[in-house]
Amino acid sequence: MAPKNTSAARIDPGGYAGSSPRPSQLPGGTGQPTNLNLELTDLCNIKCRMCGQADNSKVHNLQPNSFMTWEVWKASIDSLTSYPDEVSLCPHWLGEPMLHPEFDRFVRYAFEQNEGNRLFRHFKLHTNGSLLKDRSIDTLLDCANMDSMAEDTFRFIHFSVDAWTPQVYYDLKKFDYGARVYRNIIRLLERRTERGLRWPYVTNAFIVMPENQHEAGWYLDYWKRVFERLGIDFEVFYDWPSQLVDNLYFRRLHQADQAAADRLHRIVLDRLGILPLDAAGDFVEDSF
């Protein structure tokens, strides 16, 4: 494991550094990739204090009409056959995608139709990890390792964890799911290892805040031990992960007083030995 200063590694529009967007496939294309967030639901099952959705009562009102229908998902996926440019697909924007009662069916359909990457070139998943059960783990591993498309199609799952102790997790997210999230992520890594698979990689994200900054070292040490126990190579990043690798991502908080958030972020990075306080560097924070 080696901490990475990613300030010099520019991330291209298609994803991690080193990924080259292919030319447009059909007439009328721009030749540039499109980042498509096809959101399964805008609902969420936790209330992260750093998320604008947390105070929206509608986001936590689980009604039957709050989820994308099968007909809309199927039509949207099928329509990509005629889309002229390369697509990077994500079933998430503001909500928790795994809340969808047919999450597995929807994801499998997208990948089963994507032979030869005819619909999308890349896929990613953002989740808080609290709903990741064994069935969904196998769905994600199966889809990420299909031999009918480019091996790096499903490149990573981004887990929003942000805490080490159950109390801090609860303080930040208002639900006592911390231990469950840790178990689920570890089970995914174990299952991927047991099956001898490479994809998808895992990003374990920790947004640095006053409430959790004292836990950053414990978080780093714990996940280091997990990766080492499983024989998994990993990296540590302070900006958006710039390599195809399992990683820990110590992310800065976005808030009104951005200077204070940036200062705390740099102090924690220095404390962890990731980035000295006097080191220069711009942030990329590109989500693809």
Q: Would you write up a description of this structure?
A:
With 288 residues, the chain is of the alpha/beta class. It has one domain: Aldolase class I (TIM Barrel, Alpha-Beta Barrel). The chain is built from seven helices and eight strands; from the N terminus they run ββαβαβαβααβαββα. Helix content is 30%, strand content 15%. Helix 2 packs parallel to helix 3 and helix 3 crosses helix 5. Strand 4, helix 3 and strand 5 form a beta-alpha-beta unit. It has an eight-stranded parallel β-sheet. The two termini are 23 Å apart.
The biggest beta sheet is recorded as:
8 strands, parallel
What structural class do the secondary elements suggest? alpha/beta
Task: Report Rg.
Answer: 19 Å
Distance between the termini: 23 Å
The CATH H-level homologous superfamily: Aldolase class I
CATH topology: TIM Barrel
**Overall structural domain count:** 1
Would you identify the regions where 5 or more consecutive residues have pLDDT less than 50?
1-24
The top-level CATH class is Alpha Beta
Query: How many beta-strand runs?
Result: 8
Q: What layout of secondary structure does this protein have?
A:
Blueprint: E1 2-4, E2 34-37, H1 70-79, E3 87-90, H2 103-112, E4 122-127, H3 134-144, E5 154-160, H4 166-173, H5 178-194, E6 201-208, H6 216-229, E7 234-237, E8 246-252, H7 258-272
Parallel strand pairs: 1-7, 2-3, 3-4, 4-5, 5-6, 6-8, 7-8
